[in-house]
Design goal:
By secondary structure, the protein is an alpha/beta fold. The chain has two domains: 129 residues, ATPase, nucleotide binding domain (Nucleotidyltransferase, domain 5, 2-Layer Sandwich), CATH 3.30.420.40; 159 residues, Nucleotidyltransferase, domain 5 (2-Layer Sandwich). The chain is 38% helix and 18% strand. The protein has a five-stranded mixed beta sheet with strand order 3-2-1-4-5, sandwiched between helices. Helix 6 packs antiparallel against helix 7. The chain starts with a strand and ends in a 22-residue tail after the last helix. Bound molecules: 5'-O-[(R)-(carboxyoxy)(hydroxy)phosphoryl]adenosine and zinc ion. Zinc ion binds next to helix 3. Belongs to the KAE1 / TsaD family. It catalyses: L-threonylcarbamoyladenylate + adenosine(37) in tRNA = N(6)-L-threonylcarbamoyladenosine(37) in tRNA + AMP + H(+).
């Protein structure tokens, strides 16, 4: 078994996976609702809450310690002070239990959320939509990750959070905006960003400004409906440019914002149009969680890719995002 820890942002989570049959042996996550008052994650507060939550979860895993073969932890990318909490705990466990330590890139973890209980596939496109990232990726036949497009400014999930903040709603904004959008109409006439078809990139900051200018003229529900429809339109516009020319025939969607059902529906239509199969993570494991980190760690364990405990392991940006 491998015990994995995830603490890159505002979720404290620990999972244990069986390396042989990939069964989930243990899973728990504590989300930090304390940030909702601030409209975004406050790093120092996140770090303090991790140092309370992680030991509380870890206590429940002691019975499995004799079965552990390795400790895994998210070491990048993320908030440094948040990553630090998980990495400190992982190092302490590895040292005291005399086990190897496996570091996992958080984005690789999100990709692995598509294959929690099965073999990892290759040769597919993957849309990563989270609070920190918006990218179209290609996973090549040899499992290498190629970044085909990314956002120039805000991420898809972050733009939901910022719109929620402008509308005096809580944090995280994604699920709340999606709920209000169901009761509203797409009548604000927002223009889809980068509508000229040639630019293979995303941008959400202009849309955020369109929302700001509409605040006094429309209801919250209509703003949410219009914003969400336009943001999804933007995602699909660019995705289509890659799908229509791709020899891949599978598309995965991962990251916290991949739980958005309106986004899933529009992408499903695109997949039908271009004859792609659509691969989704279970809703419970779209947002940050330690099970996806454990799944990614199984791969590294089999390749004997272990970390050196004496080196600096944390990076706020991705340094190891070349292959699954
Ligand atoms: O993957 P994740 O848990 O954390 C990062 O790695 O960033 O993603 C969190 C992001 C937040 O910005 C949140 O508002 C967004 O995902 N999100 C959603 C939905 N659920 C979560 N965005 C749109 N619609 C949703 N239903
Ligand atoms: Zn994430």
């Amino acid at each position: 078994m491998i015990l994995a820890i995830e603490s890159s942002c505002d979720d404290s989570s620990i999972a244990i996976i069986d390396t042989k049959d990939l069964k989930e042996v243990f899973y728990e996550k504590i989300s930090q609702n304390e940030h909702s008052a601030f409209g975004g994650v406050v790093p120092e507060l996140a770090s303090r809450l991790h140092t309370i939550a992680l030991p509380n979860i870890l206590k429940k895993t002691k019975q499995y310690f004799p079965n552990l073969k390795a400790i895994a932890v998210t070491n990048e990318p993320g908030l440094s002070v948040s990553l630090q909490s998980g990495v400190a705990m992982a190092k302490a466990l590895a040292l005291s239990l005399k086990l190897p330590l496996i570091t996992v890139n958080h984005l690789v973890g999100h990709i692995c959320s598509l294959f929690l209980n099965e073999d990892i596939q290759n040769n597919f496109l993957c849309l990563l939509v989270s609070g920190g990232h918006t990218q179209i990726l290609k996973i090549n036949k040899n499992y290498e990750i190629q970044i085909l497009a990314k956002t120039n400014d805000d991420s898809f999930g972050e733009s939901f959070d910022k719109v929620a903040k402008m509308l005096d709603l809580s944090y995280p904004g994604g699920p709340i905006v999606e709920e209000l959008a169901k009761k509203g109409k797409n009548i604000c006439n927002f223009t889809t960003p980068l509508k000229d078809k040639t630019r293979l990139e995303y941008s959400f900051s202009g849309l955020k400004n369109q929302v700001r200018l509409a605040l006094n003229d429309f209801s919250k529900n209509d703003i949410c409906a219009s914003f969400q429809a336009t943001a999804i339109n933007h995602i699909c516009d660019k995705l289509e440019l890659f799908m229509k020319d791709s020899e891949c025939k599978m598309l995965g969607i991962v990251g916290g914002a991949s739980a958005n059902l309106a986004l899933r529906k529009e992408i499903e239509l695109l997949c039908n149009k271009y004859n792609f199969s659509l691969k989704l993570a279970p809703l419970k494991y779209c947002s940050d969680n330690a099970l996806m980190i454990a799944r990614a760690a199984v791969l590294k364990y089999k390749r004997a890719e272990f970390a050196n405990l004496n080196t600096e392991l944390i990076s706020p940006v991705s340094t190891d995002f070349r292959r699954i």
